[in-house]
């Protein structure tokens, strides 16, 4: 496990690293999750081994610190992720990012384009105000104090054991502020950033969730949109064979 300061006050963001050849692959989790839980089994696939791989836990999540003063906006998370890549001495990395992590990766690529050579975004949040069914909308609907008091426990009961296993490790206030930031979105929006980036871009969607809104416009802008059959929001868990092929560039 590696770590670096991210807020100027001693708080540290942490990641697990596997050595290998570059360009490195940097795996970024979604809201209330951990990168290793969702991606380590993918990086261990035969078609993906041998590459330097980093599994980053964003501030407030997993094993990273959770300072009370931090904002946890998309921009805040992107700046912390940039600190990781700088500390690791990386440029031109491939970012494999899920859900909220995809929105963070887009902001990072917009702010620090030299750090990113390829984006594989899985069910990434591209627009402000995600659908009402999104977990971020449910969390952000609480006031922060109410969520910290008992909303966190209520949400853990509702989301089921898989997501709850990692969400319970996230700081409630960090989780709430992250959800509010995700609902607020970024400027430019993630969709606008994705369409304009001059790097290899892949958007992975679960086939069980229907067609990605605006997919034709993204494809016209050079984004490869891949629909993985039999998968929902957690594509890498629902269909790891297909997901690994997308990351490897063979699907």
Our Rg estimate from Cα atoms comes to 17 Å
User: Distance N terminus to C terminus?
Assistant: 31 Å
**Per the principal axes of the C-alpha atoms, what is the gross shape?**
globular
State the total count of DSSP E strands.
Answer: 8
Query: Which H/E pattern describes the elements?
Result: EEEHEHEHEHHHHHEHEHH
Summed up, the helix count is 11
Strand portion:
15-25%
Give the helix level as a range of percent.
40-55%
Please outline the major beta sheet.
Answer: 8 strands, mixed
User: Unreliable runs, pLDDT <50, ≥5 residues?
Assistant: none
Mean pLDDT: 97
With strands numbered from the N-terminus, the spatial order across the biggest sheet is 1-2-4-3-5-6-7-8
Specify the structural class. alpha/beta
In short:
This protein is α/β, with parallel strands linked by helices and 251 residues long. The protein is 41% helix and 20% strand. α5 (144-159) crosses α7.
């Amino acid at each position: 496990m590696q770590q670096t300061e991210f807020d100027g006050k001693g708080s540290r963001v942490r990641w697990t690293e596997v050595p290998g050849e570059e360009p490195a692959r940097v795996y970024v989790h979604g809201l209330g999750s951990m990168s290793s839980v969702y991606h380590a089994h993918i990086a261990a696939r035969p078609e993906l081994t041998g590459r330097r791989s980093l599994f980053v836990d964003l501030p407030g999540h997993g094993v990273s610190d959770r300072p009370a003063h931090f904002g946890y906006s998309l921009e805040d998370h992107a700046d912390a992720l940039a600190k990781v890549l700088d500390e690791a001495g990386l440029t031109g990395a491939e970012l494999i990012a899920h859900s909220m992590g995809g929105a963070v990766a887009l902001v990072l690529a917009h702010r620090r384009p030299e750090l990113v050579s390829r984006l594989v975004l899985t069910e990434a949040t591209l627009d402000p105000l995600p659908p009402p069914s999104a977990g971020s909308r449910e969390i952000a609907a609480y006031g922060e104090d109410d969520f910290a008091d008992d909303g966190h426990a209520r949400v853990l009961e509702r989301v089921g054991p898989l997501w709850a296993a990692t969400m319970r490790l996230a700081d409630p206030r960090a989780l709430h502020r992250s959800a509010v930031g995700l609902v607020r979105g970024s400027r430019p929006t993630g969709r606008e950033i994705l369409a304009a980036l001059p790097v290899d871009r892949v958007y992975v969607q679960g086939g069980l969730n229907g067609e990605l809104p605006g997919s034709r416009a993204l494809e016209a802008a050079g984004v490869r949109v891949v629909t993985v059959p039999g998968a929902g929001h957690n594509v890498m868990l629902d269909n790891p064979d297909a997901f690994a092929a997308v990351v490897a560039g063979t699907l």
